[in-house]
Amino acid sequence: MKLKKAHRLAAIAKILSDNPNKILTFNYFAERFFSAKSTISSDISSIKAIFDEQKLGRVITIPGAAGGVKYIPTIYKDECITFLNSLCERLSSKERILPGRFLYLIDLIYDPFVVEKIGKIFASIVNYSEADYLVTIETKGIPMAIMTAKIMNLPLLIIRKNTKISEGPSINITYVTGKNNSKIQTMSLPIKSIKKGSKVIILDDFMRGGGTIKGMHDLMKEFSVEVITSIVIIATQEPEIKKIHNYEYLISLEEQDGKNILKPSSKIISQLES
Amino acid sequence: MKLKKAHRLAAIAKILSDNPNKILTFNYFAERFFSAKSTISSDISSIKAIFDEQKLGRVITIPGAAGGVKYIPTIYKDECITFLNSLCERLSSKERILPGRFLYLIDLIYDPFVVEKIGKIFASIVNYSEADYLVTIETKGIPMAIMTAKIMNLPLLIIRKNTKISEGPSINITYVTGKNNSKIQTMSLPIKSIKKGSKVIILDDFMRGGGTIKGMHDLMKEFSVEVITSIVIIATQEPEIKKIHNYEYLISLEEQDGKNILKPSSKIISQLES
């Protein structure tokens, strides 16, 4: 059955929304809706205009034989400011401070809508066009990492703290974390999980000294894999000098007189579209 | 600016798609698009019809003061059969069998589109209307669990194998797994992560004897939390008698002459809408 324009637009919007960063051909839609390609082309222009106008994300068309249409999830400046401010407010509560000044985060970073928004911000500020994989380390960053992977249309790798019998041969390294490098830990990744020469983006939930992310960099080196950049949700202001240089964070955490001061990164916000 | 019907439908389809299992009021759309509520009501009817016709999921309207419209992600029978058959085929490869007959799964269960489809199947076969949380145990099931949480609009809890300094006071239990109950392990959940009297659905990637899921049941009992049901991606045929009774699985795994035979659960498929 041939569809009316309004119905085609609704269906196309839904299908694009379900398939971020995938190229869908005009032919695919033309066959699905028994329409001419020129009709689909005009539909896509309408979708693009309405997504722009309603701030629902970017829609781009790719010309040529392998061409089609691609939906790119985007967060806009106002939405991001509102979201990060509310996250900072919730994180500032005194009840979240645990012995050793650890921050209780799991109600937020296991919330699917919070981590999806975080993924959208990451996708809006990082250039992932050359990335082959996202890489995180177990456990707390995994929900955010898989949501980001969905948005960027990339596979995820999860580094384990120990060799696992269900993951086959692995490369393991040791790394140091904690104050004065006091803690030595191991991390492990299956050999066949990643191709030599790949490019990756590293994700984690929290960074203090940067020891864990430095370890992930070192592990990637053993796989001859290039790290494009690293992104974390929260980075502490102290120590100012981290073990890694090229990274982005969404929220900074400063400890003042036993209180936590959390602020959205102004660099991140300045990069976003209004 | 007032929108044309076709543009409103595209925007509504996109917004519903981004907010599974959330009730969005007609007022929200009426204000956003400067339209009358009656116009929005007729738009929603069109969306419902086109989603049904194109098998894009269910759209239901909820009457009354707290009413509105809700999009419920759904997988249909044909799509599910195709997906599970292709998953079984990929899982049957001999190269996936590791020493100790463990199955190499991580390229599939860390793939955001695979785990999202799995989440859609879970949401199509399990009644989650009374659930307050989804619960999984680290690590391999987390990507699938957070995707399911997004689809069901529920928060996720992740049980850890050990007490964590960044998660506050916890309840820990021991549980037994492995052949002849040969392995004793611990699992841990922060006390303040879940409210007494809640109802949960347990998720995991793989079940052999059911020891881990039995452990999760026992842990939930310590929190005075009721388990509605348990769902896993793969369940082995042997041992036939598991440590838990009330569970669902997507794929069964049978070992025959050193080969793995993987089959989609016919019970699951029979429950799906055509």
Explained architecture:
2 copies of one chain form a homodimer. The radius of gyration of chain A is 21 Å and the shape is globular. In chain A, α2 (26-33) packs across α3 (37-53) and α6 (112-125) packs across α7. Chain A has 9 helices and 12 strands. The model of chain A has no long low-confidence stretch (mean pLDDT 95). With 274 residues, chain A is an alpha/beta fold. In chain A, the strands form 4 sheets. A 6-stranded mixed beta sheet of chain A has the order 6-5-9-10-11-12, with helices on both faces. A two-stranded antiparallel ribbon of chain A has the order 1-2. A two-stranded antiparallel ribbon of chain A has the order 3-4. The first copy, chain A, has helices at 5-18, 26-33, 37-53, 77-91, 106-109, 112-125, 142-152, 211-222, 266-270; strands at 58-62, 68-72, 97-98, 102-103, 133-137, 156-159, 170-177, 183-190, 199-207, 226-236, 247-256, 259-264. Chain A folds into 2 domains: 5-72, Winged helix-like DNA-binding domain superfamily/Winged helix DNA-binding domain (Arc Repressor Mutant, subunit A), CATH 1.10.10; 77-270, Rossmann fold (3-Layer(aba) Sandwich). In chain A, 41% of the residues are buried. Helix content of chain A is 36%, strand content 27%. The longest helix of chain A is centred in the first third of the chain and has 17 residues, at 37-53. At the A-B interface, α1, α3, β4, α6 and α7 of A face α1, α3, β4, α6 and α7 of B.
How are strands sequenced across the largest beta sheet of chain A? 6-5-9-10-11-12
Helix content of chain A: 25-40%
* Structure class of chain A: alpha/beta
Shape of chain A: globular
Write the CATH fold name of the largest domain in chain A. Answer: Rossmann fold
Described by its quaternary structure, the protein is homodimer
SSE series of chain A = HHHEEHEEHHEHEEEEHEEEH
Q: What is the β-strand count of chain A? A: 12
Determine and state the CATH class of the largest domain in chain A. Alpha Beta
| Global Rg of chain A | 21 Å
Mean pLDDT of chain A: 95
- How many independent structural domains of chain A? 2
| Unreliable parts of chain A | none
- Please identify, by name, the CATH architecture of the largest domain in chain A: 3-Layer(aba) Sandwich
Which two chains form the greatest contact, residue counts included? Answer: A-B, 64 and 64 residues
Query: Count of helical segments of chain A?
Result: 9
Domain Phosphoribosyltransferase (chains A, B): 112-249
Domain Bacterial purine repressor N-terminal (chains A, B): 4-73
Protein name (chains A, B): Pur operon repressor PurR
GO molecular function, one term (chains A, B): DNA binding
